[in-house]
């Protein structure tokens, strides 16, 4: 095991391979256009999922965790021609159990950010994340 892997409770090379596959998957680009765009970022301490939810109110956005998956559900209120909002959902499947990590979220100016701590434990159960 190399020093880079020793710093984290999950396999770094597996995470890098997963991120490469996620961004090269043609379905990801299709879903970005069909529902809402998702970007992934990695810092030294966190994995960050960013969702572009222009036209959504914070009260209409939910984030749920189940095993190794993050579910983002939203209702877009501002649609052209006065059409009512349609619910949409994206699922991000990670190469580790996200329920075992500390997860927080923030919503501002139509952008949802979900922060998954690499080295801080969570409760280990499926749950909804509060967006303050």
From TrEMBL:
InterPro entries in the cross-refs: A-crystallin/Hsp20_dom (IPR002068), HSP20-like_chaperone (IPR008978)
Pfam families, sorted: HSP20
Keyword annotations of the record: Capsid protein, Virion
Keyword Acyltransferase: no
PROSITE patterns: SHSP
Ranges where the SHSP domain occurs: 29-132
Gene3D superfamilies: 2.60.40.790
Family, as annotated: Belongs to the small heat shock protein (HSP20) family.
Listed name of the protein: Spore coat protein M/HSP20 family protein
Organism: Cytobacillus oceanisediminis
């Amino acid at each position: 095991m190399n020093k880079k892997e020793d710093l984290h409770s999950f396999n770094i090379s597996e995470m890098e391979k997963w991120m490469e596959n996620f961004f090269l998957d043609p379905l990801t680009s299709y879903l970005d256009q069909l529902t809402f765009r998702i970007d992934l970022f990695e810092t030294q301490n966190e994995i960050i999922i960013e969702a572009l939810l222009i036209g959504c109110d914070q009260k209409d956005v939910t984030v749920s965790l189940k095993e190794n998956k993050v579910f983002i559900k939203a209702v877009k209120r501002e649609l052209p021609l006065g059409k009512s909002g349609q619910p949409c959902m994206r699922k991000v499947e990670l190469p580790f159990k996200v329920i075992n990590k500390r997860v927080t979220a923030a919503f501002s100016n139509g952008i949802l950010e979900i922060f998954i701590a690499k080295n801080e434990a969570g409760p280990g159960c499926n749950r909804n994340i509060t967006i303050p």
